[in-house]
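haha ok so turns out i had the wrong file open the whole time. this is the CORRECT one, sorry everyone. sequence first:
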Amino acid sequence: MSRCLAGRSIDHVVLDRGEVANSWKTERWDSLRLLTPNWQSRLPGGAEAGDPHGFRTMPETVAFLEGYAEAIDAPVRTHTAVTSVRQAEQGYLVQTTRGAWRSRAVVLASGACNLPNVPQQIASALPAPVASLTAHQYRNPDRLEEGGVLVVGASATGVQLAEEIQRSGRSVTLAVGEHIRMPRRYRGRDIQWWMDAAGILDQRYDELDDLARAREVPSLQLVGDAGGRMLDLNALAATGVRLAGGLAGLTEGKALFSGSLANQAALSDLKMNRLLDAIDAWAAGRGLDGEVQPPERFAPTRIEASPPLSLDLQRSGIRTVLWATGFRPDHSWLEVAVFDRKGRLRHDGGIVDAPGLYLMGAPFMRRRKSALIDGAGDDARELSAHLAAHLGVSPPSRRGP
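then structure:
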Protein backbone atom coordinates (compact mmCIF):
# COMPACT_ATOMS: atom_id res chain seq x y z
CA MET A 1 0.00 0.00 0.00
CA SER A 2 2.86 2.38 0.79
CA ARG A 3 4.36 1.77 -2.65
CA CYS A 4 1.01 2.45 -4.34
CA LEU A 5 0.39 5.62 -2.33
CA ALA A 6 3.87 6.87 -3.19
CA GLY A 7 3.12 6.22 -6.86
CA ARG A 8 0.16 8.58 -6.51
CA SER A 9 2.24 11.20 -4.65
CA ILE A 10 0.11 10.80 -1.53
CA ASP A 11 1.97 11.80 1.63
CA HIS A 12 1.76 9.00 4.20
CA VAL A 13 3.52 7.23 7.05
CA VAL A 14 3.69 3.54 8.01
CA LEU A 15 3.45 2.84 11.73
CA ASP A 16 4.74 -0.45 13.14
CA ARG A 17 4.55 -1.63 16.74
CA GLY A 18 7.92 -3.36 16.34
CA GLU A 19 10.25 -3.59 13.37
CA VAL A 20 9.61 -4.38 9.72
CA ALA A 21 8.37 -8.00 9.51
CA ASN A 22 7.88 -7.98 13.27
CA SER A 23 5.40 -10.87 13.49
CA TRP A 24 7.55 -13.02 11.19
CA LYS A 25 10.45 -12.46 13.61
CA THR A 26 8.63 -13.02 16.88
CA GLU A 27 5.48 -15.12 16.33
CA ARG A 28 6.48 -18.06 14.14
CA TRP A 29 7.96 -21.49 14.88
CA ASP A 30 11.57 -22.18 13.94
CA SER A 31 11.12 -24.60 11.04
CA LEU A 32 8.22 -22.82 9.33
CA ARG A 33 8.43 -22.14 5.62
CA LEU A 34 5.97 -20.13 3.55
CA LEU A 35 3.22 -22.27 2.03
CA THR A 36 3.50 -20.38 -1.26
CA PRO A 37 6.49 -20.71 -3.62
CA ASN A 38 8.82 -17.75 -3.95
CA TRP A 39 7.46 -16.69 -7.34
CA GLN A 40 4.18 -16.06 -5.58
CA SER A 41 5.48 -12.96 -3.79
CA ARG A 42 4.86 -10.43 -6.55
CA LEU A 43 4.79 -7.01 -4.92
CA PRO A 44 4.47 -3.59 -6.65
CA GLY A 45 7.92 -2.44 -7.67
CA GLY A 46 9.55 -5.48 -6.06
CA ALA A 47 12.07 -7.90 -7.53
CA GLU A 48 12.01 -11.67 -7.18
CA ALA A 49 14.60 -13.08 -4.79
CA GLY A 50 16.09 -16.57 -4.72
CA ASP A 51 14.87 -19.77 -6.36
CA PRO A 52 11.38 -18.97 -7.71
CA HIS A 53 10.25 -22.53 -6.94
CA GLY A 54 11.65 -22.62 -3.41
CA PHE A 55 9.82 -21.85 -0.17
CA ARG A 56 11.21 -19.15 2.08
CA THR A 57 12.25 -19.90 5.64
CA MET A 58 11.34 -17.39 8.33
CA PRO A 59 14.76 -15.64 8.23
CA GLU A 60 14.48 -15.47 4.44
CA THR A 61 10.95 -14.05 4.68
CA VAL A 62 12.12 -11.38 7.13
CA ALA A 63 15.01 -10.45 4.81
CA PHE A 64 12.65 -10.32 1.83
CA LEU A 65 10.24 -7.91 3.54
CA GLU A 66 13.03 -5.78 4.99
CA GLY A 67 14.63 -5.57 1.55
CA TYR A 68 11.33 -4.58 -0.05
CA ALA A 69 10.72 -1.82 2.51
CA GLU A 70 14.21 -0.48 1.85
CA ALA A 71 13.92 -0.78 -1.93
CA ILE A 72 10.71 1.28 -2.10
CA ASP A 73 11.94 3.66 0.62
CA ALA A 74 8.80 3.13 2.70
CA PRO A 75 8.38 5.84 5.39
CA VAL A 76 8.24 3.33 8.26
CA ARG A 77 8.22 4.47 11.88
CA THR A 78 9.27 1.45 13.92
CA HIS A 79 8.51 0.79 17.59
CA THR A 80 5.43 2.98 17.28
CA ALA A 81 2.45 1.08 18.62
CA VAL A 82 -0.99 2.46 17.82
CA THR A 83 -3.08 2.73 20.99
CA SER A 84 -6.25 4.23 19.49
CA VAL A 85 -7.79 5.47 16.26
CA ARG A 86 -10.75 7.85 16.54
CA GLN A 87 -12.71 9.89 14.07
CA ALA A 88 -11.86 13.59 14.20
CA GLU A 89 -12.55 16.67 12.17
CA GLN A 90 -11.57 16.01 8.54
CA GLY A 91 -10.31 12.51 9.24
CA TYR A 92 -8.82 10.59 12.13
CA LEU A 93 -6.78 11.06 15.28
CA VAL A 94 -4.20 8.29 15.69
CA GLN A 95 -2.69 7.97 19.16
CA THR A 96 0.58 6.04 19.44
CA THR A 97 3.25 5.31 22.00
CA ARG A 98 5.33 8.02 20.30
CA GLY A 99 2.80 10.80 19.95
CA ALA A 100 -0.36 11.57 18.01
CA TRP A 101 -1.03 11.82 14.27
CA ARG A 102 -3.86 13.47 12.37
CA SER A 103 -4.74 11.93 9.03
CA ARG A 104 -7.47 12.25 6.44
CA ALA A 105 -7.33 8.51 5.80
CA VAL A 106 -6.18 5.39 7.66
CA VAL A 107 -5.30 1.95 6.28
CA LEU A 108 -5.62 -0.96 8.72
CA ALA A 109 -2.81 -3.31 7.67
CA SER A 110 -2.19 -5.05 11.00
CA GLY A 111 -3.11 -8.46 9.62
CA ALA A 112 -5.69 -11.13 10.30
CA CYS A 113 -3.61 -13.35 12.60
CA ASN A 114 -3.00 -11.20 15.67
CA LEU A 115 -4.74 -13.29 18.35
CA PRO A 116 -4.92 -17.09 18.66
CA ASN A 117 -8.51 -18.24 18.31
CA VAL A 118 -8.50 -20.57 21.32
CA PRO A 119 -11.85 -21.96 22.61
CA GLN A 120 -11.49 -20.47 26.07
CA GLN A 121 -14.26 -22.47 27.74
CA ILE A 122 -12.57 -25.72 26.78
CA ALA A 123 -9.04 -24.48 27.47
CA SER A 124 -10.00 -23.29 30.96
CA ALA A 125 -10.97 -26.88 31.86
CA LEU A 126 -7.46 -28.24 31.27
CA PRO A 127 -6.06 -29.94 34.39
CA ALA A 128 -3.22 -28.00 36.03
CA PRO A 129 -0.33 -30.35 35.07
CA VAL A 130 -1.10 -29.96 31.35
CA ALA A 131 0.54 -27.02 29.57
CA SER A 132 -1.55 -24.96 27.14
CA LEU A 133 0.33 -23.51 24.17
CA THR A 134 -0.71 -21.64 21.04
CA ALA A 135 0.93 -21.79 17.61
CA HIS A 136 2.19 -18.22 18.24
CA GLN A 137 4.07 -19.46 21.31
CA TYR A 138 5.42 -22.73 19.93
CA ARG A 139 9.02 -22.70 18.64
CA ASN A 140 10.29 -26.31 18.47
CA PRO A 141 9.74 -29.71 20.16
CA ASP A 142 12.72 -29.27 22.50
CA ARG A 143 10.95 -26.42 24.28
CA LEU A 144 7.84 -28.47 25.09
CA GLU A 145 7.13 -30.17 28.40
CA GLU A 146 8.22 -33.79 28.55
CA GLY A 147 5.47 -36.16 27.45
CA GLY A 148 2.82 -36.50 24.79
CA VAL A 149 1.07 -33.70 22.91
CA LEU A 150 -2.52 -33.16 21.87
CA VAL A 151 -2.59 -30.93 18.78
CA VAL A 152 -6.00 -29.34 18.23
CA GLY A 153 -6.76 -28.40 14.61
CA ALA A 154 -5.76 -30.06 11.33
CA SER A 155 -5.32 -27.23 8.85
CA ALA A 156 -1.87 -26.20 7.58
CA THR A 157 -0.48 -25.27 11.00
CA GLY A 158 -1.86 -28.27 12.84
CA VAL A 159 -0.61 -30.93 10.43
CA GLN A 160 2.87 -29.38 10.24
CA LEU A 161 3.25 -29.17 14.01
CA ALA A 162 1.83 -32.66 14.56
CA GLU A 163 4.35 -34.14 12.13
CA GLU A 164 7.32 -32.22 13.55
CA ILE A 165 6.52 -33.15 17.14
CA GLN A 166 5.83 -36.82 16.31
CA ARG A 167 9.15 -37.12 14.45
CA SER A 168 10.95 -35.67 17.49
CA GLY A 169 10.05 -38.84 19.39
CA ARG A 170 6.96 -37.69 21.27
CA SER A 171 3.54 -39.26 20.93
CA VAL A 172 0.99 -37.00 19.23
CA THR A 173 -2.78 -37.11 19.05
CA LEU A 174 -4.36 -34.83 16.46
CA ALA A 175 -7.91 -33.55 17.02
CA VAL A 176 -9.30 -33.13 13.50
CA GLY A 177 -12.11 -30.72 12.71
CA GLU A 178 -12.95 -29.11 9.38
CA HIS A 179 -10.00 -29.14 7.00
CA ILE A 180 -9.16 -29.15 3.28
CA ARG A 181 -6.85 -31.86 1.99
CA MET A 182 -4.65 -30.81 -0.91
CA PRO A 183 -1.65 -32.18 -2.84
CA ARG A 184 1.47 -30.03 -2.92
CA ARG A 185 1.99 -30.89 -6.57
CA TYR A 186 -0.53 -31.98 -9.17
CA ARG A 187 0.15 -33.18 -12.71
CA GLY A 188 3.79 -32.15 -12.35
CA ARG A 189 3.22 -28.57 -11.16
CA ASP A 190 2.72 -26.90 -7.81
CA ILE A 191 -0.92 -26.69 -6.77
CA GLN A 192 -0.52 -22.93 -6.37
CA TRP A 193 0.56 -22.68 -10.02
CA TRP A 194 -2.69 -24.33 -11.06
CA MET A 195 -4.81 -22.13 -8.82
CA ASP A 196 -3.02 -19.01 -10.06
CA ALA A 197 -3.05 -19.91 -13.77
CA ALA A 198 -6.69 -21.03 -13.73
CA GLY A 199 -7.77 -17.77 -12.10
CA ILE A 200 -9.02 -19.43 -8.91
CA LEU A 201 -6.92 -17.16 -6.69
CA ASP A 202 -8.19 -14.10 -8.56
CA GLN A 203 -11.84 -14.90 -7.90
CA ARG A 204 -13.43 -11.73 -6.55
CA TYR A 205 -15.45 -11.24 -3.39
CA ASP A 206 -18.42 -9.81 -5.28
CA GLU A 207 -18.73 -12.97 -7.40
CA LEU A 208 -19.69 -15.26 -4.51
CA ASP A 209 -23.09 -16.23 -3.18
CA ASP A 210 -21.79 -16.95 0.34
CA LEU A 211 -18.91 -14.58 1.01
CA ALA A 212 -19.06 -15.00 4.80
CA ARG A 213 -18.52 -18.73 4.41
CA ALA A 214 -15.65 -18.25 1.95
CA ARG A 215 -13.87 -15.97 4.43
CA GLU A 216 -13.95 -18.70 7.08
CA VAL A 217 -12.59 -21.56 4.96
CA PRO A 218 -9.59 -23.18 6.71
CA SER A 219 -6.14 -23.04 5.19
CA LEU A 220 -5.14 -25.88 2.85
CA GLN A 221 -3.23 -28.83 4.27
CA LEU A 222 0.09 -27.89 2.70
CA VAL A 223 3.74 -27.75 3.69
CA GLY A 224 6.37 -25.56 2.02
CA ASP A 225 8.36 -28.33 0.35
CA ALA A 226 10.00 -27.95 -3.05
CA GLY A 227 10.03 -31.75 -3.34
CA GLY A 228 6.25 -31.78 -3.57
CA ARG A 229 5.62 -33.78 -0.40
CA MET A 230 1.93 -34.21 0.43
CA LEU A 231 1.13 -33.78 4.12
CA ASP A 232 -2.35 -35.10 4.86
CA LEU A 233 -3.97 -37.30 7.48
CA ASN A 234 -2.75 -40.45 5.74
CA ALA A 235 0.85 -39.23 5.87
CA LEU A 236 0.50 -38.29 9.54
CA ALA A 237 -1.02 -41.63 10.49
CA ALA A 238 1.91 -43.35 8.75
CA THR A 239 4.31 -41.58 11.15
CA GLY A 240 2.33 -42.76 14.18
CA VAL A 241 0.11 -39.72 14.83
CA ARG A 242 -3.19 -40.82 16.41
CA LEU A 243 -6.23 -39.25 14.75
CA ALA A 244 -9.35 -38.23 16.64
CA GLY A 245 -12.38 -36.10 15.87
CA GLY A 246 -12.67 -32.43 16.69
CA LEU A 247 -12.16 -31.52 20.35
CA ALA A 248 -15.67 -31.06 21.76
CA GLY A 249 -14.88 -30.54 25.43
CA LEU A 250 -12.83 -31.37 28.51
CA THR A 251 -14.26 -32.90 31.65
CA GLU A 252 -12.60 -34.50 34.67
CA GLY A 253 -9.25 -34.60 32.89
CA LYS A 254 -10.66 -36.29 29.79
CA ALA A 255 -10.67 -34.83 26.29
CA LEU A 256 -13.95 -35.50 24.50
CA PHE A 257 -13.89 -35.81 20.71
CA SER A 258 -16.58 -35.50 18.07
CA GLY A 259 -17.70 -38.69 16.39
CA SER A 260 -17.64 -37.06 12.94
CA LEU A 261 -14.00 -37.74 12.02
CA ALA A 262 -14.90 -40.07 9.13
CA ASN A 263 -17.44 -37.59 7.79
CA GLN A 264 -14.98 -34.69 8.03
CA ALA A 265 -12.35 -36.71 6.15
CA ALA A 266 -14.81 -37.74 3.44
CA LEU A 267 -15.97 -34.13 3.00
CA SER A 268 -12.36 -32.98 2.74
CA ASP A 269 -11.65 -35.59 0.07
CA LEU A 270 -14.73 -34.42 -1.81
CA LYS A 271 -13.61 -30.77 -1.76
CA MET A 272 -10.13 -31.71 -2.96
CA ASN A 273 -11.47 -33.80 -5.84
CA ARG A 274 -13.86 -31.03 -6.89
CA LEU A 275 -10.93 -28.63 -7.17
CA LEU A 276 -8.88 -31.19 -9.11
CA ASP A 277 -11.86 -31.73 -11.45
CA ALA A 278 -12.01 -27.97 -12.06
CA ILE A 279 -8.26 -27.88 -12.77
CA ASP A 280 -8.54 -30.80 -15.20
CA ALA A 281 -11.41 -29.11 -17.04
CA TRP A 282 -9.46 -25.85 -17.26
CA ALA A 283 -6.32 -27.63 -18.52
CA ALA A 284 -8.29 -29.51 -21.16
CA GLY A 285 -10.01 -26.33 -22.29
CA ARG A 286 -6.64 -24.61 -22.75
CA GLY A 287 -5.08 -27.55 -24.60
CA LEU A 288 -2.54 -28.25 -21.84
CA ASP A 289 -3.12 -31.99 -21.49
CA GLY A 290 -0.18 -32.75 -23.76
CA GLU A 291 2.18 -30.47 -21.80
CA VAL A 292 1.55 -31.77 -18.29
CA GLN A 293 1.24 -35.12 -16.57
CA PRO A 294 -2.06 -37.05 -16.81
CA PRO A 295 -4.84 -36.43 -14.27
CA GLU A 296 -4.60 -38.40 -11.05
CA ARG A 297 -6.69 -39.03 -7.97
CA PHE A 298 -5.42 -39.80 -4.50
CA ALA A 299 -6.39 -42.67 -2.23
CA PRO A 300 -9.21 -41.73 0.18
CA THR A 301 -8.33 -40.65 3.68
CA ARG A 302 -8.06 -43.75 5.86
CA ILE A 303 -9.81 -43.55 9.22
CA GLU A 304 -9.72 -46.38 11.76
CA ALA A 305 -13.00 -48.15 12.35
CA SER A 306 -13.49 -46.76 15.87
CA PRO A 307 -11.60 -43.49 16.41
CA PRO A 308 -11.28 -42.47 20.06
CA LEU A 309 -14.19 -40.49 21.48
CA SER A 310 -12.36 -39.64 24.71
CA LEU A 311 -8.82 -39.52 26.02
CA ASP A 312 -7.70 -39.43 29.64
CA LEU A 313 -4.89 -36.89 29.42
CA GLN A 314 -2.96 -38.06 32.47
CA ARG A 315 -3.17 -41.79 31.75
CA SER A 316 -2.22 -41.28 28.10
CA GLY A 317 0.80 -39.18 29.04
CA ILE A 318 -0.43 -35.94 27.45
CA ARG A 319 1.47 -33.05 29.00
CA THR A 320 0.83 -30.32 26.42
CA VAL A 321 -2.20 -29.19 24.45
CA LEU A 322 -1.14 -27.21 21.39
CA TRP A 323 -3.88 -25.06 19.90
CA ALA A 324 -3.72 -24.85 16.10
CA THR A 325 -7.26 -23.50 15.93
CA GLY A 326 -6.65 -20.43 13.82
CA PHE A 327 -6.35 -16.74 14.54
CA ARG A 328 -8.39 -13.58 14.53
CA PRO A 329 -7.51 -9.91 14.02
CA ASP A 330 -7.03 -7.48 16.90
CA HIS A 331 -8.78 -4.16 16.33
CA SER A 332 -9.29 -3.38 20.01
CA TRP A 333 -7.56 -0.03 19.47
CA LEU A 334 -10.00 1.02 16.72
CA GLU A 335 -12.55 3.32 18.37
CA VAL A 336 -14.78 3.80 15.33
CA ALA A 337 -18.30 2.36 15.03
CA VAL A 338 -17.54 -0.02 12.16
CA PHE A 339 -18.10 -3.43 13.80
CA ASP A 340 -21.00 -5.82 13.30
CA ARG A 341 -22.73 -7.73 16.11
CA LYS A 342 -20.04 -10.43 15.97
CA GLY A 343 -17.24 -7.88 16.33
CA ARG A 344 -16.12 -8.09 12.71
CA LEU A 345 -15.23 -5.07 10.61
CA ARG A 346 -17.96 -3.95 8.23
CA HIS A 347 -16.28 -3.43 4.90
CA ASP A 348 -16.91 -3.79 1.18
CA GLY A 349 -13.79 -5.33 -0.33
CA GLY A 350 -11.52 -3.48 2.09
CA ILE A 351 -13.44 -0.19 1.98
CA VAL A 352 -14.49 0.09 5.62
CA ASP A 353 -17.86 1.52 6.60
CA ALA A 354 -16.39 4.93 7.55
CA PRO A 355 -15.07 7.61 5.15
CA GLY A 356 -11.33 7.31 4.56
CA LEU A 357 -10.89 4.01 6.43
CA TYR A 358 -9.44 0.99 4.61
CA LEU A 359 -8.41 -2.60 5.33
CA MET A 360 -5.58 -4.76 3.95
CA GLY A 361 -4.66 -8.42 4.31
CA ALA A 362 -7.97 -9.94 5.42
CA PRO A 363 -9.08 -13.38 4.13
CA PHE A 364 -10.90 -13.12 0.78
CA MET A 365 -11.04 -9.34 1.22
CA ARG A 366 -11.20 -8.52 -2.49
CA ARG A 367 -9.91 -11.78 -3.95
CA ARG A 368 -9.33 -15.33 -2.83
CA LYS A 369 -5.61 -14.49 -2.56
CA SER A 370 -6.05 -11.32 -0.47
CA ALA A 371 -4.45 -12.83 2.65
CA LEU A 372 -1.37 -13.98 0.68
CA ILE A 373 1.70 -11.83 0.05
CA ASP A 374 0.90 -12.26 -3.64
CA GLY A 375 -2.55 -10.76 -3.16
CA ALA A 376 -1.42 -7.52 -1.52
CA GLY A 377 -0.37 -5.80 -4.72
CA ASP A 378 -3.65 -6.04 -6.63
CA ASP A 379 -5.67 -5.07 -3.56
CA ALA A 380 -3.40 -2.11 -2.81
CA ARG A 381 -3.64 -0.82 -6.38
CA GLU A 382 -7.44 -0.76 -6.26
CA LEU A 383 -7.81 0.52 -2.72
CA SER A 384 -5.19 3.24 -3.22
CA ALA A 385 -7.21 4.46 -6.21
CA HIS A 386 -10.32 4.66 -4.02
CA LEU A 387 -8.33 6.39 -1.29
CA ALA A 388 -6.96 8.92 -3.78
CA ALA A 389 -10.47 9.70 -4.98
CA HIS A 390 -11.57 10.18 -1.37
CA LEU A 391 -8.75 12.70 -0.88
CA GLY A 392 -9.49 14.39 -4.20
CA VAL A 393 -6.08 13.49 -5.62
CA SER A 394 -5.87 13.37 -9.41
CA PRO A 395 -4.75 10.10 -11.02
CA PRO A 396 -1.02 9.95 -11.85
CA SER A 397 -0.11 11.14 -15.33
CA ARG A 398 1.91 8.00 -15.91
CA ARG A 399 1.02 4.39 -15.30
CA GLY A 400 0.83 3.73 -11.56
CA PRO A 401 2.77 1.07 -9.65
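Residues 261-285 form the longest helix (25 residues).
again sry for the mixup
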